[in-house]
Every structure is written in structure tokens, then in C-alpha cells.
């Protein structure tokens, strides 16, 4: 089929999904487009609770994803003995010690769980997981009664050292045991998401990205915009990445291509590394002619072709978010000016959505 990106895409903005007076857009007049923080701009950041038995890998995940610790060095991380809070631009992660049962009456459960958006249970697939399954079931049943709005995800972790057949059998057994225990306790069709993860590949980024999307009330709006730009520009997959954490807060609704996702993830690392060497804090330099000032106001972008048969396209949306897409279309590079125009329209639409919410 012929490749056609000549028709400029037109975005019809859906009605806002929330109406919260506490929501406020952060406008930076020095930028060409309003600078707004990603996700939802509330007075309290979205909170993710990391729970699980001790030595299950909670702190390792946080240090690899948020602080770029090499996975091989996670064996030197000491055991967590107090609640550790990790704050990012749009969310918080609380690392809860696994040797403590925070559902006991002598703990202030209200301060821990009342503002939580999601609970992520880390389960070590290499260890005897029966105790972890029992603790998870008990925790979900107690939280479901007190805080019914919390969303639950289970990371079946450290699957990298298991053979393919044994890994699949282990994952199926764990999922079945958890669902059976919850059903036996009277919780029918529990809304629990399961992910097989490892810090040695991109599966942990994919899983955490899915958890963040559960907390994003604007997800349907973002997906509609990304579906439009993907179709108009003939991209196989498009993402909206949080640059600092390398997690994506939204993507189009086509199936995830892990090979393409890995390329996008490596692409961000490369751009961030280059920006640390050659970048500067735009908008704060004084002097310069009009052409220099105009260039500084424009969003950064990058384009690479011929990488394992892919063409990669990146454009900065604001200080925190980047649009990344990839395509295998042979004429993708030739149509880049039209793609630039369409992506600019997408950026304007996205900025409008973030400003509204």
C-alpha cells in the first residue's frame, strides 16, 4: 500500500474527564508552548505502594528504574527497615519493609493507605512463594474493605533466571493460586493485574508504565490523540514517555512491540546522555540575536533511520514528556516535513488537554 501522510491531521479534543478545582496548569512564559507537569496536577502526588516479603526485590526495582543503578549491583542494596519515600515529578513510590505487617492495629494505616492510588506487590518467583501469596491475599482483602479505590498489581519478579517452560508454569501457578484464594474469600472477579518482571530487561519498565496508566484519569484522552497521530503518520507504535523515569504514561492502543519498545527506551538514554554533554538550560541565557532566541524556544527533536529496519522519531512535548514513535515505512524519512507538522498539531492538542485538566 502507498504511504500517505500528506493530509494534515485535525484533532478534536474530547471533553475533560475530570473537573477538579485543585487542578492547575503550570505555565512558563519563556517557552514556546505552556510548560505543564505530566499527568494530573493535584496538590498531592499520585502514590504507589511497593509491598512484598523482604528480599523480594522492591528496593532493587526502585534503584534500577528511578536511579539508574546497574542491575548487577542490586545485590549490594541493604534490606529496607523503614518506609522509604521516593518522589518524582508526577508520582511517589513508597517502599514498605517486607518484614513488617502494616495492617496491624499499632500502625497508622490511614496515613499510609488513604492517599494511595495503587499497591504493587513484589513476589519473588525464585523463592517459595506460598507465604507471599497468603500475605498478598490477606492484604488485598483488608485493604478492599477500608480503601476500595486502591488498584492492585502483582509483579512476579526475578523470572529472568527461570527457563521458558518453567517460567510460564510458575507464573500460571502463582496467578491461579492468588485468584483462587481471593475467590474463596468472597472477592469475585478481583481487579488484580499480573506482570512477569526482571530488572535485567525492559519488562520492569513496561510493568511500571502500565501501573501508572491505571492512575491516569486522562488515559483515554491521551490514547485517542496517540491513535490519531499514529494512523496519520503510519507509525507502528507511538509512546508518551516521562523522560526522567523512562516510563511511558500513554501509548496508542496497538499491541506492544517489545523490540520497538526497547529501541525507544535506548533512544531516550542516548538523547539524555547527549543533552547532559551538549544541552543547556533554555530560556535563561541573556543576549543573543532573534534567531538564537527563537531556536531556544522550539521543542527539541531527533530523527534516526535505518536502525534494525526502523525509523525512530522523537519530539519534546514539554520539560518532562517526550513523544516517541517508530515506523518501518520506506518513505517515512521522505515525508518527515509533513510528519513534523502533524506532530506539532499533536503537541498543541496535548498541551490544551493538560492545561484544561
How would you portray this structure in words?
- This protein has 357 residues and is an alpha/beta fold.
- Helix content is 36%, strand content 19%.
- It is built from 9 helices and 11 strands.
- The strands form 2 sheets. The chain has a 6-stranded mixed beta sheet, with helices on both faces.
- A hairpin with a 4-residue loop joins strand 10 (310-316) and strand 11 (321-327).
- The protein is globular.
- It starts with 45 loop residues before the first strand and ends with a helix.
- The model is unreliable at 1-7 and 12-43 (pLDDT under 50).
Brief summary of the model shown:
The chain has 357 residues and is α/β, with parallel strands linked by helices. The chain has helices at residues 58-67, 109-113, 130-146, 164-184, 203-214, 219-233, 258-278, 290-297, 336-356; strands at residues 46-51, 84-87, 91-95, 116-124, 151-157, 192-196, 237-242, 247-251, 301-307, 310-316, 321-327.
Keywords:
disordered N terminus, 19% strand, 357 residues, single chain
Shape: globular
**Secondary structure tally, helices:** 9
Overall strand count:
11
Summarize the helix and strand pattern as letters: EHEEHEHEHEHHEEHHEEEH
User: Reading side by side through the largest sheet, how are the strands ordered?
Assistant: 2-3-1-4-5-6
Estimate the strand proportion: 15-25%
Low-pLDDT runs:
1-7, 12-43
Amino acid at each position: 500500500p502507498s504511504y500517505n501522510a500528506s493530509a494534515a491531521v485535525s484533532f478534536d479534543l474530547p471533553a475533560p474527564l475530570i473537573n477538579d478545582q485543585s487542578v492547575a496548569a503550570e505555565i512558563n512564559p519563556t517557552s514556546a508552548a505552556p510548560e505543564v507537569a505530566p499527568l494530573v496536577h493535584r496538590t498531592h502526588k499520585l502514590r504507589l505502594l511497593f509491598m512484598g516479603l523482604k528480599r523480594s526485590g522492591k528496593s532493587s526495582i526502585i534503584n534500577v528504574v528511578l536511579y539508574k543503578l546497574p542491575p548487577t549491583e542490586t545485590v549490594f542494596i541493604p534490606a529496607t527497615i523503614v518506609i522509604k519515600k521516593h518522589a518524582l515529578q508526577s508520582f511517589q513510590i513508597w517502599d514498605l519493609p517486607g518484614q513488617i505487617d502494616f495492617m496491624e492495629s499499632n500502625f497508622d494505616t490511614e496515613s499510609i493507605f488513604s492517599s494511595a492510588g495503587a499497591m504493587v506487590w513484589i513476589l519473588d518467583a525464585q523463592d517459595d512463594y506460598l507465604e507471599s501469596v497468603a500475605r498478598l491475599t490477606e492484604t488485598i482483602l483488608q485493604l478492599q474493605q477500608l480503601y476500595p479505590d486502591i488498584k492492585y498489581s502483582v509483579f512476579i519478579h526475578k523470572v529472568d533466571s527461570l527457563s521458558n517452560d518453567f517460567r510460564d508454569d510458575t507464573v500460571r501457578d502463582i496467578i491461579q493460586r492468588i485468584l483462587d484464594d481471593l475467590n474463596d474469600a468472597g472477592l469475585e472477579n478481583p481487579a488484580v493485574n499480573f506482570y512477569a518482571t526482571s530488572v535485567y530487561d525492559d519488562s520492569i519498565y513496561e510493568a511500571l508504565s502500565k501501573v501508572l496508566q491505571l492512575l491516569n484519569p486522562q488515559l483515554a484522552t491521551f490514547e485517542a490523540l496517540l491513535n490519531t497521530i499514529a494512523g496519520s503518520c503510519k507509525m507502528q507504535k507511538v509512546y508518551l514517555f516521562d523522560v526522567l523515569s523512562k516510563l511511558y504514561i500513554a501509548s496508542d492502543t496497538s499491541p506492544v512491540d517489545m523490540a520497538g519498545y526497547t529501541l525507544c527506551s535506548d533512544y531516550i538514554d542516548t538523547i539524555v546522555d547527549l543533552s547532559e554533554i551538549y544541552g543547556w538550560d533554555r530560556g535563561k541565557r541573556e543576549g543573543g540575536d532573534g534567531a538564537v532566541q527563537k531556536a531556544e524556544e522550539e521543542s527539541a527533536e531527533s530523527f534516526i533511520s535505518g536502525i534494525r529496519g526502523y525509523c525512530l522519531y522523537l519530539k519534546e512535548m514539554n520539560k518532562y514528556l517526550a513523544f516517541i514513535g517508530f515506523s518501518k515505512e520506506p518513505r517515512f524519512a521522505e515525508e518527515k516535513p509533513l510528519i513534523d507538522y502533524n506532530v506539532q498539531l499533536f503537541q498543541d492538542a496535548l498541551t490544551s488537554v493538560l492545561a484544561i485538566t
